[in-house]
């Protein structure tokens, strides 16, 4: 059974799995909470399927610097590595 990470983490199992895979605390909590809230559409989670504008907004939301100068492939790489 997963440890209870408090009210800020909505899906403790997913959070722990992502942390075990090397995801940062921020990234793991963002994904775990989005899955818990069903805000992730599993059909369109592939970054390659998103528009450059959608990727830019995601990069802005998570605080990636230099995003204005990035093309779509660079945005995808930056989001994945965040």
From TrEMBL:
Cited InterPro entries: DUF7218 (IPR055642), Rho-like_N (IPR011112), Rho_N_sf (IPR036269)
Segments forming domain Rho termination factor-like N-terminal: 47-79
Gene3D superfamilies: 1.10.720.10
Region (Disordered): 1-46
Residue stretches of biased makeup (Basic and acidic residues): 1-29
Gene Ontology annotations of biological process type: DNA-templated transcription termination
Pfam families found in the cross-reference section: DUF7218, Rho_N
Protein name: Rho termination factor-like N-terminal domain-containing protein
């Amino acid at each position: 059974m997963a440890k209870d990470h408090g009210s800020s983490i909505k899906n403790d199992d997913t959070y722990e799995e992502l942390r075990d895979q090397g995801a940062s605390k921020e990234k793991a909590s963002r994904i775990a909470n989005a899955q818990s809230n069903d805000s992730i559409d599993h059909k369109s989670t592939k970054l390659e399927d998103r528009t450059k504008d959608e990727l830019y907004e995601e990069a802005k939301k998570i605080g990636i610097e230099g995003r204005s100068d990035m093309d779509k492939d660079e945005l995808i790489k930056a989001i994945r590595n965040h």
